[in-house]
């Protein structure tokens, strides 16, 4: 057990029996009242945001979380199978931990997974990925100078909006958080 004064932004706490990540942790000293810590915490499993005031000497449990790079191998039902790059050990990670970024995962990609006592609690895909366009309508001559967008399907099967000058077979960089086109890759 640690004191509230030892908590930092980014720590993972066991709070009311649930794992939460500390998003904001501010020390407050209002006028002639006692000092306290104002915390914004996000539940790891549900994603809900909670606010709480900790007394300076209040006991908190900081969870021991190991975060490491893993290589995404393949999809297996409701799980993604990833491999530790150092030990070659394989782990099944539930798909919901990746959220919307899971649709951009491609075999061989590096992902970040956090474990708390052998249980995966958080997973992140890369912020941007390079994917090949498998299908898109050809651009009409003369339309390529405007900033208009058209639909395109990438190699993972996801449909995104790309500029008119992008053709089938081109590689593009996609932001996995929003699903937006970033740039064409040479």
Descriptive overview:
By secondary structure, the protein is an all-beta fold. The protein folds into three domains: 2-62, SH3 type barrels (Roll), CATH 2.30.30; 65-124, Beta Barrel (OB fold (Dihydrolipoamide Acetyltransferase, E2P)); 128-185, OB fold (Dihydrolipoamide Acetyltransferase, E2P), CATH 2.40.50. It contains no helices and 16 strands. It has a six-stranded antiparallel beta sheet with strand order 1-6-2-3-4-5, with no helix packed on it. The protein has a five-stranded antiparallel beta sheet with strand order 9-8-7-10-11, with no helix packed on it. A five-stranded antiparallel beta sheet has the order 14-13-12-15-16, with no helix packed on it. The N and C termini lie far apart (52 Å). The mean pLDDT is 89.
